[in-house]
Amino acid sequence: MGQGALSNTTARGALCMTMRFLLGAAFLAAGILKLSDPQGFAFAVKGFRVLPDHLVIPATYAIPWTEVFAGVLLLLGLWSRAAALVLSAMLAGFIAGLASVILRKMDVSCACFGDLQFPCGHSVGWCQIIRNVVMLGMAAPVLLWGPGAMALERPCRRGACGCAGSPAGVSASA
Questions:
Q1: What's the number of domains the chain is made of?
Q2: Is the pTM of this model over 0.90?
């Protein structure tokens, strides 16, 4: 491996690790803040008027617990791609919900990060969509290249753990 390839790999690993840590910390914080005020978050979910009433309470708990679990996985570097994929799907759903509220010209409080609304205000607007698009972009390197440095999961090397389509435990050269 040449010097350029090594530095490219090192830079990619550092980028993935940084995005993984930032995204994991953001979603861990968001989930904890929502769980600390479930009634407030339930009112916010209901206020968006995108879910039927019977799904508001399950969503009030499913969303933040998923954020906490995926955030912890990202911080630890375990199943990072899966966690980033789940959070990306959630972000896409959040973007759609936010756009729906904006297009319907509703005055709704976000409660995306509980009472902490950095850098956006409480009222739903384009700032929340931009913030979610940025976080979606932060998930991309983890989805594409894996967890990066300082992860508990180790990268799979060809033949070492069943990569490249070979069954688990079977060497790629067999």
A1: 1
A2: no
